Structures are given as C-alpha cells and as structure tokens.
C-alpha cells in the first residue's frame, strides 16, 4: 500500500468538504485576554478571541498564575511519574479534596484531561461492573462514546434530553441488570441544558447509576461553581460528577467526583489513570486556586451572564439568527462548512475577530456554525466591534435566509 498517497487522498476528501482544520496560531499575553496576537508569516495581527473555552478568563487570573509560579518554583516542571509511582504530589491531593468538596462528594480523582476522565471513568465502570448496560444520551461527547465503546459493555442510546425515552429503554431490562446512565448538563455545541431532575427520577426508579458530564458547567453555574447540579440542588442524587479543569477553571485536567468506594474502584482499575504520568503539580496548584476563587466569587459569573445577554440582544437587534438556549454558549448558525470557514476567515482578516468555524464531525453536516462564548473579559468595545463585523458579513453573504433554514 502507498501509505503517503492514502493519507493525502483522505485529507483531500476532508478539504473538499470544507472541514479541513487549520490551527489558528494565537499568542495570549498575560493579563490581556481576550486580546491576543496572531502570527501571519513574518507579520503579526492584533485579534480579539471570541471562541475560547476559558469561559471566565481564569487562565489569566492573578491568583491562578501566582499559585502556578509558586508551585513551579517549589516542585519543578513535571510530576515525575504516574500517580502510583512517585507522581503524586501534595498539590494533587489538595486539588482532589477541593473537587470532592465542590461537588459534595466523599472523593475525587484527577485525570490528565476531561477527555481521559470520561474515557477512563465511564469505560472502567462499564467494563468492570459485571453485566453492566450503559444508557447514553444521543448527543454525548466523543470522550464518553469512546469510553463506552472501549468498555465493550452493551449500550443503548436514548433520545437527547428525553427522560421518557430513557425510561422506555431502561424498562427493557430487569432489576437484576446493573445500569449506568450517562449524559451531560450543558451540551457544548447547542448550549441546551439537560432536565437533570427528571433524568434522575428515571434513574432512581430503575436503580441505575447516573454519570453526568458537567464539563461546560463547572465554575460557571451554581452558587460555588459546582455546575448545574449544584444550582438545582441535585448533586447528592448523582452517582458520578465528571468535570474539566481546562474550561471555566482556565488550566487543564479532568476529574470525577463520587463516593469514596467508587472513586477507589476507578483509581484501582482504570488503565487511563494507572498508566499515565500525573498532571504537573503547578497545574494542580493553579486549578486549586481557580476553584477556590470561584467558590466564593460570583463577580465573574455575574459579568459573564451580563455579557452573554448583551451579545444575544445585539444579535437579535441585527436579525442575526442564533440558537436560543439557557446557557452561556451562543451558536450563530451558518449551515454550510465552506461558508462558515469563509466568514470566519473574513472576520479575522478584516476585523481581527477570531471565531473558529465549527464543522462536522463536531456538529452534524448542515448545522455548521460560529460558536460565540462571551466572557467577563470582553468589554463594550469588543462587543460593538463583533456585532458591527457580523452584521456586515451577514448582509454581504445574504446568510440570514440560509441560517433560518439551518
Ligand atoms: N466533555 C465534553 C462535553 C466536552 O465538550 C469536552 C471538551 N470539548 C470534554 C469532555 C473533554 O474535556 P477536556 O477538554 O478537558 O479534555
């Protein structure tokens, strides 16, 4: 086989569909986010970032940066091993305690990313509980899907955010069958929110364990940033809460929080935990500082809400269609991969506005979009410039009609 020709041919196919991904090389300067610099050959361009998942700007927060500097000086760059073989540091232990407390659980366990925490956490429960059947929401993230597939446990997919369909699917299995129900709270691409209480009612009726991915909610919702489940007073009813340290907390890493026994079980059997180098202690220290700050400070959450409402209202006023949803994610629908890319390039080249096009397989073909994430660090001028530029391109491309169809 001519491997090189094969790779090229596959990539050409992706290019033709308009969904070939090009990295946007952005330099964030300390303290200036969402302002950044893009490198264009030898030149640089000032840009405003509108698509970051550092939702609250915590990646630039002085408490976080100071904690990371201090831990770096104290511990050095890397963890030096897996958690079991010399890689566990005081900062990991403190962070796990902080996370358990955040979610009102007995224990928490760190992984190197949210992806790994889902893949390993869900996968380990599904594969190591004999006879376990997994019930997965139709729009679950790739990391959960891969974890479930990898476990080789039988699984059923229930209709998105539909507790009645979940109930029907669970009813096909007797009480003796161990069941695990996996879903998210805030769905990252449409920004809709799961009816958690109803889903938990169904889980409890069938004696099923519940596993919730709160990756797009932790830090952002709830009085202490514990997520939608905290906001709705439901944390105590959920078996496993999974989250990331890489989005609202501004650093990197993932975790699960649950009962001490469940966490110990995953710690003992998850290969994605056992055989991988631990997060650098400085990362753990930064994440800990971020969580601590957001447990007591509402200022970032409040200002983010205000910014989101402002952007939505301005989009409405300009007739630019966006998916209505109750979260902080604003999907501006385009409905075509090539157009989405052209708009994104135009915004960058002409206005220094960075919004990455979102294409298949992240979203279904025909629902390509620009995903805006207003944050507390965007000011009025940033919003004015965004809306002016979007209005201009929107009328230029006569996209409104297409977007409504999408
Ligand atoms: N779950 C969901 C719903 C996500 O959107 C993502 C990341 N996009 C992850 C898990 C993985 O988290 P991380 O980026 O920390 O690996």
Give the CA-CA distance, first to last residue: 41 Å
What percentage of amino acids are in beta strands?
15-25%
Q: So how many helices?
A: 16
Could you give a short account of the major beta sheet? 7 strands, mixed
The overall pLDDT average reads 95
* Bulk shape: globular
The whole-angstrom Rg is 22 Å
Low-confidence stretches: none
Fraction of residues in H or I helices: 40-55%
Bound molecules: 4'-deoxy-4'-aminopyridoxal-5'-phosphate
Q: Based on DSSP secondary structure assignment, what is the total number of beta strands? A: 14
Question: What is the strand arrangement across the widest sheet?
Answer: 4-10-9-8-7-5-6
Structural class: alpha/beta
SSE sequence, one letter per element: HEEEHHHEHEHEHEHEHEEHHHHEHEEEHH
Q: What oligomeric assembly is this protein in?
A: single chain
């Amino acid at each position: 086989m001519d491997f090189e020709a094969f790779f090229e041919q596959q990539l050409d196919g992706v290019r033709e569909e308009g969904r070939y991904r090009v990295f946007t090389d952005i330099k964030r300067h300390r303290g200036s986010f969402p302002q950044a610099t893009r490198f264009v050959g030898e030149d640089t361009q000032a840009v405003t970032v509108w698509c970051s998942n550092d939702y609250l700007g915590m990646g630039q927060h002085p408490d976080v940066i100071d904690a990371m500097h201090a831990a770096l000086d104290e511990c050095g760059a890397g963890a030096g091993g897996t958690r079991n073989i010399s890689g566990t540091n005081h900062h990991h232990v403190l962070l796990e305690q902080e996370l358990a407390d955040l979610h009102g659980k007995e224990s928490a366990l760190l992984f190197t990313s949210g992806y790994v925490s889902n893949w390993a956490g869900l996968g380990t429960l599904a594969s190591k509980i004999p006879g376990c059947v997994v019930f997965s929401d139709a729009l679950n993230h790739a990391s959960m899907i891969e974890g479930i597939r990898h476990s080789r446990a039988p699984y059923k997919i229930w209709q998105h955010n539909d507790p009645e369909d979940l109930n029907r699917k669970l009813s096909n299995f007797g009480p003796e069958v161990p069941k695990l129900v996996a879903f998210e709270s805030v769905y990252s691409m449409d920004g809709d929110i799961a009816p958690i209480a109803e889903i938990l009612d169904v889980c409890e009726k069938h004696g099923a364990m519940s596993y919730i991915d709160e990756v797009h909610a932790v830090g952002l919702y709830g009085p202490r940033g514990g997520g939608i489940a905290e906001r709705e007073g439901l944390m105590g009813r959920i078996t496993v809460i999974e989250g990331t340290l890489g989005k609202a907390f501004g650093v990197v890493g993932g975790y699960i929080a649950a009962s001490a026994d469940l966490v110990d079980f995953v710690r003992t059997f998850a290969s994605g935990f056992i055989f991988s180098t631990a997060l650098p202690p400085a990362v753990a220290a930064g994440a800990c500082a971020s969580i601590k700050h957001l447990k007591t400070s509402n200022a970032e959450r409040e200002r983010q809400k205000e910014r989101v409402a402002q952007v939505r209202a301005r989009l409405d006023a300009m007739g630019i269609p966006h998916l209505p949803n109750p979260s902080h994610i604003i999907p501006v629908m385009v409905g075509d991969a090539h157009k989405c890319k052209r708009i994104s390039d135009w915004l960058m080249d002409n206005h220094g506005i960075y919004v990455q096009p979102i294409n298949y397989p992240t979203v279904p073909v025909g629902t390509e979009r620009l995903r805006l994430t207003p944050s507390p660090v965007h000011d009025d001028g940033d919003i004015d410039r965004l809306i002016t530029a979007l209005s201009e391109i929107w009328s230029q491309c006569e996209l409104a009609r297409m977007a409504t169809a999408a």
